[in-house]
Structures are given as structure tokens and as C-alpha cells.
Amino acid sequence: MTTFDFTPLFRTSVGFDRLAQTLELANRSDAGGYPPYNIELTGEDQYRISLAVAGFASSEIDIEAKENLLTVSGNKDDQVADRKFLHRGIANRNFERTYQLADYVRVEGAELKDGLLHIDLVREVPEAMKTRRIEIRAGDERLVNDSSDSEVQAA
To answer: Minimum mean pLDDT among 7-11, 63-67, 118-122: which range?
Structure first.
């Protein structure tokens, strides 16, 4: 397995600590696992995470958003003591999945339907951070306006 050393990033950059930590976390985390999930782009600044959580009730699933980390966990009570399985292929084990969210991404809502947990996310960039267009005035426009004002004042 290849490992990456992000130490040079800390030495040559200022203010990118979170980026380096995110890269380290992504490098260490397992991309597969249980439960399987999809992440899709549903609009320009809208996303949806869908997790396959068949067999879990909404009361057994906990979704927590703290800072830029979304954690989804499922705790299934073991109620199979009185049941005898010949084959057990449906996973009913506890799980915890974490997702690193970008700045200004917030959880809009969650829905459990047909064995899939859908978590809707939206990115809301503050007005101060959005790109804005700056108009350029011609240098002689200001002189024309200034001379017309002085003519009006002189008259």
C-alpha cells in the first residue's frame, strides 16, 4: 500500500491545515464497506447521499452534523435469539459512516424510503464570498461629469 507524507504541505503553506488533514483522512479511510452508498449531484449546489440500510427503522439510525463532518450511524438490536436461520445473507450489523463536508455545505433533510436513506445537502456560499463583477469606468468619463457639474455650479 502506498502512503503519502503531507508534512511538506505544512511547511510551505499557511492556512491550508484543514486541506492537509482532509487529505490524510481520505488516505486512511476505507472507501468500501457497509452499508454501500451513492453520492450524487442533484442540482448546481445540491447533493444527495443515499445509503442502503435495508432492515433498519428510522429510530435505529442517527444522523449528526458537527462542523464539517457528517456522521451516519445505525444501531440494530440483536433480536435473533429466538430465530433459527438456515442462511443469513442480509446484514443486520451496526455501522458508522462519516463524510467530510466542504465549507458552507449544510444538511437540508433526510428521508428513509424503500430501504434507502437519502440525505440531502446544499451548499450555500455567503454573498461576501460569491464572485462579483466590478465595472470599469473610462478615465475621461469622470472628467466629463466633473466639468458638467462645475458648469452647472458656475451658472
So the answer is: 7-11
**Would you say residue 63 lies in a domain?**
yes
Q: Which residues contact 27 (CB under 8 A, 6 or more apart)?
A: 3, 4
Within this chain, do residues 47 and 123 fall inside the same structural domain, yes or no?
A: yes
- Based on the domain organization, do 46 and 15 belong to the same domain? no
Report the distance separating Cα 74 and Cα 62, nearest Å: 6
Please check whether residue 63 is in contact with residue 110, taking contact to mean a CB–CB distance below 8 angstroms: yes
Contact between 64 and 93 under an 8 Å Cβ cutoff? The reply is: no
CB 34 within 8 A of CB 93: yes
Task: Name the residue among 40, 37, 44, 32 with its Cα closest to residue 63.
Answer: 37
